[in-house]
């Protein structure tokens, strides 16, 4: 088998990617008949915990503050193989802040936008389960000591990418906690609860590792899957297709927030949908999750939604799996097209990119003329094919980041397994039976040497102990590598992932009957994630950077807004120029001089819907935000952002 590594920090940054309550009469579409409380849902929660976070250990940064979050090395464990729950939480917050926000000096965080002030309070956490699911998802509620009991507000969010439970701390926590709101989170059935199939250990409620039977585990593959070897992770291997239930995951987190508030303030209980304002916010996959939550109208529970750069799929648009698998094969070649101009980072170049052009041409992906053309002609054909399929030049240029860090392959392999509801593929032939069409294996690895590729091996105690805090939810990263199918080249394996969507074999030895069956599984899983319109009268604001090269707005936000409006929904759409997908990359000077962060616009949208719900201020209208990137070496200024008024 072959392996391809990815810098852990890069993947953590990428794979990635609410509020205020007042009198019930201030919120639209609320009635006194709304379901009164969350106590009747108690059975859906297990492993409930409460922890206090005050002196030198707050809710927002675990006492690290801005300086601690900027540290280049993570907070240390006293015993690397046996970290405490408090140490794991502190390190998880460090990892998730750095993976989502631009905290670099001059980036503006904590000055122009956002807050890192200490917020003391309590955390309530549990496992929750949607009906029919094999595995639970995590829910967590942060209740600040300064909770505004008169305002009675909840911000509910879902982690971006496939991150763990703190994966939206920089999005929802940083906005809601300083305003005196409780903040509820879900990992939406993904997260960093990896299971070590070699050692037979998983992750308990407090983040520490344990064997089955030593407390309920957040992810426990079945007995057959545990024979596969290597590492299993929940997004790919739960066999639940968690994306299909992202909206219900968000709703369950909000229900758990009502339950937590009843416990935190029993004298003011019950907290209900009718007397507590709930705003949902998320970015990337979390943005898609809150839009899915907006569909759930069997009871009036949400007051507003803000979705940033959402991964959302609607009928007639291109789903993530389609454009990701296309980008994996064609984008490295298309980026050689000279008129595209300078990239934000150097993508694959030279012989490596040429091999993508050659493969695509030889397998008929670029048309007949490209078969006999040179590399320049093939690059032009790849570029024209992607442009014809909806990619903008700005999205292609920013997509160089995902090419550079091998994200297309990592995402495609994960989602193929998730949509097909597959168990982990066997590291050794014959050890497991339920395997995807393209059998990617995940394992700890010995690094590549000058003359040898990485090799799979068992993880150490210290490695597996840190996964919950350090991982992004999709390997490679945190010491776990992605190994392609035995005997298959990198391009052949990615072609197999593309075949699952198109149904057209690209490999001479492809079993057409097996491809048809596997492709039907994947397409069925994708269709289960299709979004519907939000409840009529529910304020929704969608915010997307026009340079997004990972989740292009042409495939996601734009068709979602059109669909929702056609159904009569109340949706505002902010399109922000010079913003790509990854705020965390902007600490690199070349990227900071070219792009602006998304988070200021998400916070501004939250401010606007908060003012509307609290006092009837006008909802934001549509906007195409004309921004001005800062000069290299200069700090971010308000005029660069040009926030909508």
Tell me about this structure.
By secondary structure, the protein is α/β, with parallel strands linked by helices. Helices cover 33% and strands 14% of the residues. It has helices at 8-14, 65-70, 85-100, 169-176, 234-237, 246-264, 285-293, 320-334, 350-362, 368-371, 375-388, 393-404, 407-419, 461-470, 490-502, 512-527, 557-566, 589-592, 599-615, 638-641; strands at 3-4, 45-53, 121-128, 137-144, 153-158, 182-186, 195-196, 202-203, 209-210, 231-232, 277-283, 304-308, 441-446, 455-457, 480-483, 539-545, 570-576, 623-625. It has a ten-stranded mixed beta sheet with strand order 2-3-4-6-5-11-12-16-17-18, with helices on both faces. It has a four-stranded antiparallel beta sheet with strand order 1-15-13-14, with no helix packed on it. A two-stranded antiparallel sheet has the order 7-10. Strand 3 (121-128) and strand 4 (137-144) form a beta hairpin. The chain is globular and about 75 Å long. The N and C termini lie far apart (55 Å). Mean pLDDT is 91; it is low at 1-40.
As a percent range, the share of helical residues equals 25-40%
Give the integer mean of the pLDDT values. 91
Number of discrete helical segments: 20
Note the main sheet.
Answer: 10 strands, mixed
Model regions low in confidence, pLDDT < 50 over at least 5 residues? 1-40
Please state roughly what percent of the residues sit in beta strands, choosing from under 5%, 5-15%, 15-25%, 25-35%, 35-45% or over 45%: 5-15%
User: What gyration radius follows from the Cα positions, in whole Å?
Assistant: 23 Å
Strand order within the widest beta sheet: 2-3-4-6-5-11-12-16-17-18
Structural class: alpha/beta
